[in-house]
Specification:
- This protein has about 850 residues and is an alpha+beta fold.
- Among the domains are: about 225-415, Isoleucyl-tRNA Synthetase, domain 2; about 665-765, Isoleucyl-tRNA Synthetase, Domain 1 (Orthogonal Bundle), CATH 1.10.730; about 770-830, Roll (Ubiquitin-like (UB roll)), CATH 3.10.20.
- It is about 35% helix and about 20% strand.
- Strands 8, 9, 10, 11, 12, 13 and 16 form a seven-stranded mixed beta sheet that branches.
- A hairpin with a 4-residue loop joins β8 (about 225-235) and β9 (about 240-245).
- α3 (about 85-95) packs across α4 (about 95-115), α20 crosses α22 (about 700-715) and α21 (about 675-695) packs antiparallel against α22.
- The longest helix has 19 residues, at about 50-70.
- It binds one RNA strand of 84 nucleotides through α7, β9, α10, β13 and α11.
Length: about 850
RNA sequence: GCGGACGUGGCGGAAUCGGUAGACGCUGGAGACUUAAAAUCUUCUGCCCAUGGCGUGCGGGUUCGAGUCCCGCCGUCCGCACCA
């Protein structure tokens, strides 16, 4: 008998067998029910990390399980291959972004293959290849031609050293994350996708996504940020007017000022004739936007000298330019009600403006406001003319009705969501297929000229956009007039690439982005698995893109992902030397630094990251323990939505279990006869339980049940039941540890691949126990347990309970006050 | 500040409907096998003043019975943030 499972040999063998048999290639024409399991595709940064391993293992277990339960499973893999790291590598290592990216893909693909994932590699795609991004350009033009794309001047974060636009996340304390240069606000002409056109749909659609985490739905809801209120006009003392938006029209009579944003046209107009105002506006722009700065920043205003006429005849209000009013939200102007808004309260306190209470919470009918802070709760209107006595909600409706009747305002809805700016002044992305002609204006690149490919001969030795400074690339003839014209030298935000890759996986014809009917046969994705860091942007953009495709008539699909699961991170202890250097796990042993023996401080358990050096590279681990042990560990212990702490003990334990399985699997079946009713029952309970747990993605629970079954089999005496249990266990563990399962299946000459077998059937008769353990309690406290036949009548159970020694003693000759009998569960004797 | 999640042994965690808290794994103890070690196997492992008592962050409540439901605190983590 071979004593050990040789993982290295078995892994390679079965991976090759699956590859050659195209076991996991999804068949578009299959008669089986189709299902689509997808993990978020990786960015090819260099090597795979433990987070990838955990993510893809979870998806793999589900995909393999669904195959075994009779589904035709689409489980593809590809590469989110455009993006900045490739350009940074180009600058630092003098290597072309494409060369760097494709090399990384090669490395990471080989690494993924070694983990034995049941992936359909025939559908592999990389977003940096023209046969992907060319179709994306076609979709962009479809959107453009149906009015979902527009061009607008917009303020961006401009890094003057790197000469590029930075995303908000790349601006740290007002400086560029790479260059450290002070970031400037610049106006640039940018392409926008009209995501706000779908704001309501995207919001309402969240309601249908029952298999998404509530947390993610809530985050998206807050991101979209729908607010309903009143938009109305104040007449100004200079003859103009100012439009404001409020969600609290009920507090109209509490208004004591009007404030506009620093970049509001009214503020600009005032500044033109008033240097003090201009200076104030300049000062507003300097303020930082980080949380801490906003927290401490004082509310500041500049009195324009203008006044606004209250539309309901409540006098004239001063008009300020204020630093806390945002141009980007609502109309860029507000009316201030200090008694019922904290910011307005702070502002009014500073500038000695009236604070008049118009909503009373009942306890304090006195309308003169003397609270130390604004009151924002519900209540009854006071000091408000025709609104007096109404509650807040009624008053809102009354004011909106009055405004609409009087023609000075209307009920209105405002969203926090902005249109999606997709222009990036970078090389390594999808070129925007538009040509700018001095005579014809913007012209779409004709379809037959797609793809617009990236030039290869680019340089990264100077900052700025290599496409823009390429000597010839941008110079083209205008498709309309044939005159000299220029290509748009911007590329699309890489979130565009990841907004439809799941459709291209389902169907990839050469001549168009996808075939509608094939795509619709696979989509929506039944289960999507990835990190919660994509809860908003990627998932919202993909939802939008899908709706936009439906809008232009390319697919009949509202939501791309029916089920979403956000898995936790892989974490590890951190270690620090006395001098503050971070140390890697393999530099530390027994609490001291191996090199030099210096003392080591064990820090918090944190997400694996290069900066804290607490990463564990999957590759040597797979070398040492084999793919199955790594997979098993990824599924064990921690619930999948929570963080998993990597530990040496954990992987060792997983490896021990794989070997334990092998001791059961290795060799011939015993050939013993006779049945073992208890083992049969345990087996069928495990089949049902593990199946349900996998469906629920509760892999840690499935693992626990498999441990229990394994122990039960080990302890059982030889019997036909035991032989059956062992053969069945092979199939039960197959989704999780597929290599040892194939090896064992082949050794027992079961025929075919275990990957192609069916999930074992459950015998429902064996799921019910014939005996139950009943808890005997006194006043709710456990005193004894009794094992009785299942389904025994109440009175018999009660009699048995009252005959128990401890109960007789507790009763001490008295009759119980009450006896509660829960059939097949417990008896509670109340004294 | 607003919104949300969570809090169970030495550790990760189970407990699906309000019904035996601590499944399963890790760590640790004892033992078997061995010249020895590794591996493996057996067994124990919430706490304490131990025929009993106490225990699911803290304080109350509902109930025959609460980790689970209700009220009030405390703590940790996450998201958003001058959003009118």
């Amino acid at each position: 008998m071979a004593s050990r499972f040789n993982a290295l040999k078995a892994d390679a063998h079965w991976q090759q067998v699956w590859d050659e048999a195209r076991t996991f290639a999804a068949d578009d024409h299959s008669a089986r029910p189709k299902t689509y399991v997808l993990e978020m595709f990786p960015y090819p940064s260099g090597k795979i990390h433990m987070g990838h391993v955990r993510n893809y293992t979870m998806g793999d277990v589900l995909a393999r399980y669904r195959r075994m339960t009779g589904h035709e499973v689409l489980h593809p893999m590809g590469w989110d291959a455009f993006g900045m790291p490739a350009e940074n590598a180009a600058m630092e290592k003098k290597v072309h972004p494409g060369t760097w990216t494709r090399a990384n893909i090669g490395t990471m693909k080989a690494q993924l293959k070694r983990l034995g994932f049941a992936l359909d590699w025939t559908r592999e795609l990389a977003t940096c290849e023209p046969d992907y991004y060319g179709h994306e350009q076609a979709l962009f033009l479809d959107f453009y031609q149906s009015g979902l794309v527009y061009r607008k001047e917009s303020a961006v974060n401009w890094d003057p050293v790197d000469m590029t636009v930075l995303a908000n996340e790349q601006v740290i304390d007002g400086r560029g994350w790479r260059s450290g240069a002070l970031v400037e606000k610049r106006k640039l002409s940018q392409w926008f996708l009209k995501i706000t056109q779908f704001a309501d749909e995207l919001l309402d659609g969240l309601g249908s996504l029952e298999h998404w985490p509530d947390k993610v739905r809530l985050m998206q809801e807050n991101w979209i940020g729908k607010s309903q209120g009143l938009q109305f006009r104040f007449a100004l003392s200079d003859g103009g007017s100012v439009e404001v938006f409020t969600t609290r029209p009920d507090t109209m009579f509490g208004a004591s000022f009007v404030a506009v944003a620093a970049d509001h046209p009214i503020a600009q107009a005032v500044a033109a004739g008033n240097p003090d105002a201009a200076a104030f506006i300049e000062r507003c722009k300097q303020g930082g936007t980080t949380a801490a700065e906003l927290e401490t920043q004082e509310k500041l205003g500049f009195d324009t000298g203008l006044t606004a006429t209250h539309p309901l005849g409540a006098g004239e209000l001063p008009v300020y330019i204020a630093n806390f009013v945002l141009m980007e939200y609502g109309t860029g102007a507000v009316f201030g009600v200090p008694a019922h808004d904290q910011r307005d309260f702070d502002f009014a306190t500073k500038y000695a403006l009236p604070i008049r209470r118009v909503v009373s919470d009942g306890d304090k009918p006195d309308p003169d406001f003397r609270e130390p802070e604004a009151y924002t709760g519900p209540g009854t209107l006071v000091n408000s003319h025709f609104l007096d006595g109404m509650d807040v909600e009624d008053a809102k409706r009354a004011v909106i009705a009055r405004a609409e009747d009087g023609g000075w305002g209307k009920g209105s809805t405002v969203y926090r969501l902005r249109d999606w700016g997709v222009s990036r002044q970078r090389y390594w992305g999808t070129p925007i297929p538009i040509i700018h002609c001095p005579t014809c204006g913007e012209v779409a690149v004709p379809r037959e000229q797609l793809p617009v490919t990236l030039p290869d001969d680019v340089t990264f030795d100077v900052p700025g956009n290599p496409l823009d400074r390429h000597p010839t690339w941008k110079h083209v003839a205008c498709p309309h007039c044939g005159g000299e014209a220029l290509r748009d030298t911007d590329t699309l935000d890489t979130f565009a690439d990841s907004s439809w890759y799941f459709i291209r996986f389902a169907s990839q014809p050469k001549d168009r982005p996808f075939d509608r009917s094939v795509a619709e046969s696979w989509l929506p994705v039944a289960q999507y698995i990835g990190g919660v860091e994509h809860a908003i942007l990627h998932l919202l953009y993909a939802r939008f893109w899908t709706r936009a495709l439906r809008h232009v008539g390319l697919i009949d699909l509202a939501e791309p992902f029916t089920g979403l699961f956000t898995q936790g991170m892989v974490t590890h202890e951190t270690y620090k030397a006395a001098d503050g250097r971070w140390l890697a796990p393999d530099e530390v042993r027994d609490g001291v630094e191996i090199a030099g023996g210096g003392a080591v401080t064990v820090g918090r358990v944190e997400k694996m990251s290069k900066s804290k050096k607490n990463t564990v590279d999957p590759e040597p681990i797979v070398d040492q323990y084999g793919a199955d042990a790594v997979r098993w560990f990824m599924l064990s212990d921690s619930p999948p939505e929570r963080d998993l702490e990597w530990s040496e003990n954990g992987i060792e334990g997983a490896w021990r279990f794989v070997q334990r399985l092998w001791r059961l699997f290795d060799g011939e079946a015993s050939g013993a006869t006779g049945s073992d009713a208890a083992l049969d029952r345990k087996l069928h309970q495990t089949i049902a339980g593990v199946g349900a747990d996998i469906e629920a993605l509760s892999f840690n629970k499935a693992v626990a049940k498999l441990y229990e079954l394994t122990s039960a089999i080990e302890k059982a005496a030889p019997s036909a039941s035991r032989d059956t249990a062992i053969a069945t266990l092979m199939r039960l563990v197959a989704p999780m540890v597929p290599h040892i399962a194939e090896e064992a299946w082949a050794a027992r000459a079961q025929g075919g691949l275990i990957a192609d077998t069916e999930w074992p059937a459950v015998d429902p008769a064996l799921l019910v126990e014939d005996e139950v353990t009943i808890a005997i309690q006194v006043n709710g406290k456990l005193r004894e347990t009794l094992t009785l036949a299942k389904g025994l009548p109440k009175d018999e159970v009660e009699a048995a309970a009252l005959a128990v020694d401890k109960i007789v003693r507790a009763l001490d000759g008295n009759a119980p006050r009450k006896v509660i009998v829960v059939p097949d569960r417990l008896v509670n004797v109340v004294l």
